Every structure is written in C-alpha cells, then in structure tokens.
Amino acid sequence: MLGLNACEEAIGNGGGNSESVNNSNEPIKDQQEMNNVNKIQNQQEMNNSETYAKKARIYNLIIVDESGSMSSLRDATLSGVNETINSISGAQNEFADTQEHFLTLVTFDSNGYSEPVRTLYNRRPIAEVEDFKNYNPSGCTPLYDAMGQSINELYNYIKDDEDASAVVTVLTDGYENSSQEWSGPALKALIEKLTQEGWSFSYMGSDHDVKQVSFNLSINNVIEFSHDVAGVGSTWDRESSAKRNFYRKMDREYRKGRRQSKEEWLKCKRQMASEYYENRVTPNQINDLQDGEIFVFGSNPQGFHSGGAAQVAMERFGAVWGQGEGLQGKSYAIPTTCPLEQMAEAVQRFAMFADQHPELRFLVTRVGCGIAGHSVTDVAQLFRCCVRLENVALPAEFWKILGLKM
C-alpha cells in the first residue's frame, strides 16, 4: 500500500503480500454471521443512496486488434468483448447511485479496403450498447494509431471533468507494424501523462514479447495469454474481474462523499489504477497471513488434518479437526480425496463463498495434487470459475493451464 490517507480506507482491505508477518490468529467470523453483517451494511448504503451528490463518470475504452492473426480467435474474442460489455452493464446497475458508465469500442487493422481504425461505439451510455458483432480479422496491425487516436480523443473530451475516470483496455496478438500517425515514443509520452492524471491502462497480449512491448509503452497492468480459445476466454474473464474490483473501489469513494482536494483525489485515482491487476499468484510457501487472507487447502471429507497443507492449516491457521469443508479460522478446506466430480462441486461452493466475501483474499494452494492423487491439469480446470474472482489467488501452474502467464 502507498499509505495514502485519502484512499486507504476504501481500498486497503484484504490485499498485500502474504509473506508479511501477522501474528494474529483470531478466527474469521462464520459464514452466516458474515452474511448478516454484509446484508446490514448493504441496506444502510441503500438507505443513504439519495445523499450522493456526485457520481463518477467512468469512460471504458476497449481497443481490439482485428488484424489477420486474430482470425483463429474470432469467436472467442467476440464472446469475451460481449461478456465484458455485460459486466459493465451489471456494474451500472449495481452502482447506479454512484456511477455512470460509457463505452468506446475501437477495432483496428490495415486491410486496404476500410479505415485502419474504426470506432464502433463512441462514449455511448452502456445501456444503449448492443452486442458486438462486426468483427472480421484481416490485414496488418496499426496498434499505435488505434491507441493514440482513441486515447487522445477521449482525453480531449473529459480533461476538464474532475469526476470523469478512464479505464483503457487493449487486446492484441502481435507487434505494431503499420501505423501512419503515431510513433511508439509519442504514444508512451501520452500514456505517462494520463497515468499521472489517474487513467487506468491494461494491456492484454499474446504471440509477441508482451512484457517488452507493454514496458516500452509504460503500461504496468499486463496479461499475457496463450494464443488459443482458452487463453482468450481466461483473459477476458480476468479483465472483467479487474473492472468489477475497480468499480467497487470507486463506489466506496463516492459513497464517502469524495471530499478530497483535487490533488488528493488524483493520488487516490493513481493508486486504484496502479492496482488494477492485483497479484493473483499464490506464493509457493506461506508461513504467515495478513489480515483478511485465507489459506485454502485440500482436505479429506472427514476433516482429519494430519498431513501436508491440511496439517499446516490446523497448526498455523485455525483449521478444525473433523471439519472437512468450508471456512475455519483463517483457512478454508476443500475436500479432495474423493472422485473429481465431487471435488468439482466443492470448488463451485468455494467460488460462491469467495464471491460473497470480496473483503477476504483467498490463497489457493495445490489442492488435490498431492495425497489425493489428481493431476494438476484436471484440478486447474476446476478453478476456471475463479478466474473472474479478483480476490482469489491460484498457483502459477494453475494459471498456465488456464491460459494465462502470471
């Protein structure tokens, strides 16, 4: 955390590095009690909704590569973009008291018979956005022109609006090779300027040196995905979870009245933008937990925690002997010494619980891959439902199987 007083209360829950020492081992409240507390808090917020004088105007800019190399990923890309649009629509409904959402959708390719950069929706209210259908990959990759033109246009539109925030997402599977107006250095300078003004930038790439390209553009929120349907699907799921988390943080600020000075508000926005993609890789070794972190381990249905991660959970993190599933102390048990179909059902129950408790951060270990004898590939696939949950961290090898290099 950056220690910014203007923003700590809103975004400090449950994050951080699990390596930090926390000697507290007080048990987390049981599920029913936590649900009751959340219901009361939500009702209080709803009752106070008419007091929110300000609303955040969130401009979602999505820039999608439509060059020829994306042909094999056409259907997955269409599906992913439309799911993201639905996610933004859901946020508009969920945070209607504090937010107004707009979408700009840009595609790009230089195929010789259409404009290289095409704006399908331009700052359109999300309620008026229809499904994305017109996507036919061909041609080369004018990446810099697509980014420079659309980002600069949006900046000129919102630059004097203190309550406007921009969330920029770029998807591409190749290097820039055909821009005519924008160069890499010019685009980098623009991104650096707007990052200081609190803009959020994320870069989702495949089939090229993603880290180097994003570094050259000064974009720190980066996803590298495998060039296949699974990779694209996981990428858009990951992006949707990051957006939802960002919107939630923004909602908290506006529910507090957003009383910061202009400079304090910029600092807060910069912090939220820098944390857009939070660390979601479980450390190889977990010795201590920070407040709000939960150690997720594999158990037998009887709850006999006598070996492996289960024993660690009982000795260090409050796991209960005889409880084979669910939250216990600062740990959560998933039964794994059972047929894979039963384990899959338990993982679904875990995902539902994690979704209901965004204030907690769940560190999933290599559940089911040791004594239980399941393969890493089979187990990782069970956790695909957790890609959309920003508060769930998975082992790096799980992410790789799910199509993401984390």
Q: What's a quick, concise take on this entry?
A:
The chain has 406 residues and is an alpha/beta fold. It contains twelve helices and twelve strands. The model is unreliable at 1-25 and 46-50 (pLDDT under 50).
Fold blueprint:
Blueprint: H1 5-11, H2 31-47, E1 56-65, H3 74-94, E2 99-108, E3 117-125, H4 143-158, E4 164-172, H5 184-196, E5 200-205, H6 210-216, E6 221-225, H7 229-255, H8 262-274, E7 293-299, H9 308-316, E8 326-328, E9 331-335, H10 340-356, E10 361-364, H11 376-382, E11 392-393, H12 396-401, E12 404-405
Parallel strand pairs: 1-2, 1-4, 4-5, 5-6, 7-9, 7-10, 10-11
Antiparallel strand pairs: 2-3, 6-12, 8-9
Helix pairs in contact: 3-7, 4-5
Your description of this structure?
There is one protein chain. The chain is an alpha/beta fold. It folds into two domains: 54-274, von Willebrand factor, type A domain (Rossmann fold, 3-Layer(aba) Sandwich), CATH 3.40.50; 293-405, Leucine Aminopeptidase, subunit E, domain 1 (3-Layer(aba) Sandwich). It has helices spanning 5-11, 31-47, 74-94, 143-158, 184-196, 210-216, 229-255, 262-274, 308-316, 340-356, 376-382, 396-401; strands spanning 56-65, 99-108, 117-125, 164-172, 200-205, 221-225, 293-299, 326-328, 331-335, 361-364, 392-393, 404-405. The strands form two sheets. It has a seven-stranded mixed beta sheet with strand order 3-2-1-4-5-6-12, sandwiched between helices. The protein is globular and about 65 Å long.
